[in-house]
Amino acid sequence: MDRLLERDTVLADLHRCWQDAQLSRGRIVLLRGEAGVGKTTVINRFLAGLSPRPRVVRGWCDPLATPRPLGPLLDVLGGLSGERPARVRAAIDAGDPEAIYARVVGLFGDGHRWVCAIEDLHWADGATLDLLRFLARRIDTVPVLLMVSYRDDEIGPQHPVAVLLGDLVTSAAVSRITLGPLSAAAVAHLAAESGVNAEALHRITDGNPFFVTEVLAAGPTALHEDGLPDTIAEAVVGRLARLSRTARETAQATAVCGPRAHPALVAAVYPGATAALSECLDAGVLVADADTVGFRHELARRATIDQIPDYQRKVLHQRALIALENPPIDPNRLAELAFHSDKAGDTDAVIRYGAAAAERASALGANRQAAELYALVLRHSDNIPSEQKVTWLEQHAFSSYVSGLTDTSVEWLREAIAVRHTLGDPLGEGDNLRWLSHMLYPLARTTEALEAGRAALRLLEDLGPTRQLAWALVNLAELAAFGCDPACADYAARALALGRELDDPAVLVRARCSAPLAAVACSDTGWDQLEAVWREAMTTRGLSAHAAVAGLMVCWFAALHHHRSADDFVGEASAFCKAHDVATFHALVIGAAALVALHRGDWARALEHANDVLTQPKMSPSHRHLPLVTLALIHARRGERPVAELLDEALAATEPDDLFRLGPVRAARAEAAWLAGDDDTARTEAQSGLRAATPNSDPWLVGHLQRWAQLSGSAPTTAPVTESVTPYRLELAGDWRAAAAAWTERDSPYDAAIAQLGGDIDAVQCALGTFRQLGARAAARRAQQRLSQLRGRSPDLRRKATSADPHGLTKRQRDVLELMAAGRSDAEIAATLYLSPKTVNTHVCAVLAKLGVHNRTQAAAFAHQQLPASR
């Protein structure tokens, strides 16, 4: 039975109440929560776990125009027979409330233990509520656990159930249990490997289990504006249908006004809202805080908007625009004005409010909102002069880039470059070319990035000492650092000198990062200097984007180099990026966090981080790079599913000479092949990666490839020798003890176990234990093969014997088949061959599969015909 997420405490509380009820002290449990929170699921799970089994009866209240009098009691009686239920039915038929109440108490007093569940009390009739009042006063005299569920979001102050709840406040026999929504962590667990982004899923569902499961069932498209699952839409429409017309139109007006709206704005959009708002709140369709009203869930708001005819929706947006335009205009509402202008079809207002709102959002660091607003303005800018339009193009490109929408940023920036060229503006054109270079690199288009960067430098070098030239030099210095190109030092020195001349703090920070970054990449030195510049940038006002860039560089190299402080780096960098709304850098940091968690042996957290990035829309190849590698390696090590598709995508986003990106992918492909027992492919993959190495290449990337080349059976002769001593270097030198110790010191248990495979029997047994603890079943198989070799048992000989058999049977499987043909049972075969019955059963299953037969009888018949020829 699958465990219900975050419901253990609730189930434990129910079991405690049940224990009280078994001691003849009856209990009433009020189980409350919003629609879709899982009340019925919890009741079902609780009832399924009761042992010994009590008498269980259930009743339901139904959303009928006229509720059934005593409907839940009739449901309860429908499953019972005998004298006591018959007496209750007779009292109901006679319409005698006092007799009904007394006989229901007698029904539960027959000497048995009872559990009675009544669901959806918010739809109950008055007679049912009176019966519950009566039972509540006498519940401690009968051995019954009475569970009553209801939607607390539909119980307003005038609701009849609210009166009942007030009556029960002082009863010691009544327990109240609230079911809350799922946490972000629980939603992430449910969304793992579904293709649906967990953060977005939690945001639009607010953790409501019904909405969560329906969106997951519909797939990633359900997160789109037009992708609402039918089940959710129908649930919302059904709820709206129970409102009066005025209340329904109030809810629709609120939906048009946005996620949260001031009641005065709702009233301006729909004058009838003032009188009907309380009905919406009492019904739980809307919720309110001190100043605003809105929907509990964004999905409910979307479903409500979908019910409004197009023409009516436009009218409502026009009314909202008129109301919000009343002076003085609040700058914080510029984005709302732009939104309503667009929906109302007012182009001039879109330009007026949209551009101002985008500039304000950008200034406040709300980059994703700025990108959306600039895109909105540009859709309406056909008649805008080029001098103004190009500025919006550039600002949209930048906002998109820092929001993680790299593809979009490149598209708009190319258009801006063309406009700058037409306007005869080489300074602006050169700066945009530099930006284009910077944005192409995350798309794994390294050659194009270098070409654009060099083109920018050529265009800007003749224009004097400008800020644009300084940034062109910084850009080339960083590209050279990633490529371990010695030219990095010259570019960085020139950028640093120009930054000092121009007194530009941002240029200085990035130029100061480049030289230690190259040292880290090429020789694993310079860490202290790089970290110091990063921390200085984080504490300097106005340098948040540059501090984020420095932080992600620290995190990526820390992950690739198994740095001891990698966990701390990714934690700080992630928090900084989230605080400053630089989503593109945050996603890159989370990609590094996935690899760090993989190294630490925390594969559950690694999967969570990897899926977090991979399920986000429009992520660049660089964003997906480390998450793809991480996900593939976990699956390959566990031997649980094919990983070719993941690693093919990662490889397709690399260039043959770009070792920084190519190295981890080729190493992962080599490891996956090695784990599958395909040493030839593992060797080919490793050597393909090593062909991109140079004498200046990162020793960690080179060493990683050399490890798999050596483990798959060849000495890595194609790679240059690196001077830096890494644990890989120790492995290659045959010093497995030092290598394992070095990996252990870096908190990399899997890598330490790989190093131990080069040791003696005790070392390999230790490695096998680590693999089993991590759940690395494929790696454990390789360790077992190594143990067989060390103990003088040759897997190669067994493979030859198996391949020589015409049916692919091993010697042991042929022995089992002969005994099966002789009519022996599993126990008899086990005794004859000195095996355990479980092992024999495994062999029998393998024999049936290899022979293509369905049972032991068919296998025996096959053996009688074929065994003489195969002996």
UniProtKB/TrEMBL annotation:
The ranges of region (Disordered) come to 785-812
Give the matching PROSITE patterns. Answer: HTH_LUXR_2
One Pfam family, short name? AAA_16
What is the recorded name of this protein? Answer: AAA family ATPase
Q: What CDD domains does its record include?
A: LuxR_C_like
This protein's UniProt keywords: ATP-binding, Nucleotide-binding
Q: Which organism is it from?
A: [Mycobacterium] nativiensis
Q: What is the lineage of its organism?
A: Bacteria, Bacillati, Actinomycetota, Actinomycetes, Mycobacteriales
The source's domain of life comes to Bacteria
Indicate the segments forming the HTH luxR-type domain, all copies. 802-867
